[in-house]
């Protein structure tokens, strides 16, 4: 006599949460697998393309040789006051703008690099 998948699912549905946890642990030991790995690998299909990134973070890595120009560029890009912009530049590496569009991130990177700063877009 064999048990169907539906019968197994019905039996699991009637179990308490603790019993299900013990069942999963026992199955992991018996078959030498991890339920966490199966969950992570499960949704990824072979034909799926990687989703294109739509939000970017602009990170100031270093102020560069012309710190004053970098502070001015940060102020114009962020709207911060002089003191806040100076503190941000002095605290490099630091995020300048988070969740920016690709175009906005590239424009900001270009402006900061023209001021002499070292910038990274993630």
From TrEMBL:
All copies of the Large ribosomal subunit protein bL12 C-terminal domain together span 56-122
InterPro entries annotated for this entry?
Ribosomal_bL12, Ribosomal_bL12_C, Ribosomal_bL12_C/ClpS-like, Ribosomal_bL12_oligo, Ribosomal_bL12_oligo_N_sf
Q: Which domain of life is it from?
A: Bacteria
Q: Kindly give the SUPFAM superfamilies that the UniProt entry links to this protein.
A: ClpS-like, Ribosomal protein L7/12, oligomerisation (N-terminal) domain
**UniProt entry tagged with the keyword Ribosomal protein:** yes
The Large ribosomal subunit protein bL12 oligomerization domain, residue ranges: 4-50
One cellular component (GO) term of this entry: ribosome
Q: Does the keyword Ribonucleoprotein apply?
A: yes
Which Pfam families has this protein been placed in? Ribosomal_L12, Ribosomal_L12_N
Q: Which UniProt keywords apply?
A: Ribonucleoprotein, Ribosomal protein
- Gene3D superfamilies from the entry? 3.30.1390.10, Single helix bin (1.20.5.710)
Q: Which HAMAP family match?
A: Ribosomal_bL12
Q: What is this protein's function?
A: Forms part of the ribosomal stalk which helps the ribosome interact with GTP-bound translation factors. Is thus essential for accurate translation.
- Subunit details for this protein? Homodimer. Part of the ribosomal stalk of the 50S ribosomal subunit. Forms a multimeric L10(L12)X complex, where L10 forms an elongated spine to which 2 to 4 L12 dimers bind in a sequential fashion. Binds GTP-bound translation factors.
- Which family does the similarity line name? Belongs to the bacterial ribosomal protein bL12 family.
Its recorded name reads Large ribosomal subunit protein bL12
Q: Which organism is it from?
A: Catenovulum sediminis
Q: Which gene encodes it?
A: rplL
């Amino acid at each position: 006599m064999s048990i169907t998948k539906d019968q197994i699912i019905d039996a699991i549905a009637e179990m308490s949460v603790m019993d299900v946890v013990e069942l999963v642990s026992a199955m992991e030991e018996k078959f030498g697998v991890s339920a966490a790995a199966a969950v992570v690998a499960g949704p990824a299909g072979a034909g799926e393309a990687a989703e294109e990134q739509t939000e970017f973070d602009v990170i100031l890595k270093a102020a560069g040789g012309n710190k004053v120009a970098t502070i001015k560029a940060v102020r114009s890009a962020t709207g911060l006051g002089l003191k806040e912009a100076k503190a941000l530049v002095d605290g490099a590496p630091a995020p300048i703008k988070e969740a920016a569009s690709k175009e906005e991130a590239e424009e900001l990177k270009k402006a900061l690099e023209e001021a002499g700063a070292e910038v990274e877009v993630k």
